[in-house]
Amino acid sequence: MHAPAILIIHGPNLNLLGTREPEIYGHMTLDDINKAITELSGKLNIKTKIFQSNSEGNIIGLIQENRECSGLVINPGAYTHTSIAIADAIKGTGIPAVEVHLSNIHSREDYRKKSFIAPVCIGQISGFGYFSYLTGIEALHNYLTNLKTSGK
Ligand code: DQA
User: 109, CA 20 to 30 Å: which among 73, 79, 81, 151?
Assistant: First the structure.
């Protein structure tokens, strides 16, 4: 039997990557990032289910519908700083989650320093460009594997 997939959610405006403020977010497109994620999944021998949505309600729906996934790697975009509802969905489903950001949200505007999502996550990875996603997936995979082997 295969382990359930890891759910990857890209939040609002991340579909614009490649042309969106490249000095902050880099030149890679979302497709480029998704290819790197799929390549890493192959190496780790895990499955990933990848979605992008610009809508808070859709993101909440995706979390609820995919609650059987083994874990979640989410870049909530600007919803990071506003969405108690996404935080409640993560907490309410109990899905182990990692928050990731391309930019270092702590070195930018003050309003980006607050995350409503981080407190309901295992951890947060911020500032490594597309590598934040890859690091987040590896960290989550390691967390899930250790949980299983320790029987917790
Ligand atoms: C972001 C950081 C957010 O503050 C911003 O609103 C984004 C992208 C990042 O990946 O660096 O849309 O989540």
Answer: 73
Tokens of 10: 């890209």
DSSP letter at 129 equals T
3: confidence class by pLDDT, cuts 50, 70, 90: confident
- To test the pocket of ligand 1, the residue of 20, 101, 111 to mutate (highest count of ligand atoms within 8 Å of its CB) is 101
Residues 6+ apart with CB under 8 A from 147: 96
Segment 92-108 shows an average pLDDT of 98
Domains and CATH numbers, the chain: 5-150 (3.40.50.9100)
3-class state of residue 2 by DSSP: coil
Residue 110 has pLDDT above 80, yes or no: yes
What percent of the chain is modeled with pLDDT above 70?
A: 95
Q: Which residues contact 117 (CB under 8 A, 6 or more apart)?
A: 74, 76, 79, 80, 83, 86, 87, 90, 97, 99
Averaged pLDDT, 104-110: 97
Let me know: does 140 contact 98? Beta carbons within 8 Å.
Answer: yes
Nearest CA to ligand 1 atom 13: 77
Atom of ligand 1 nearest to the CA of 81: 4
Global pTM reads 0.95
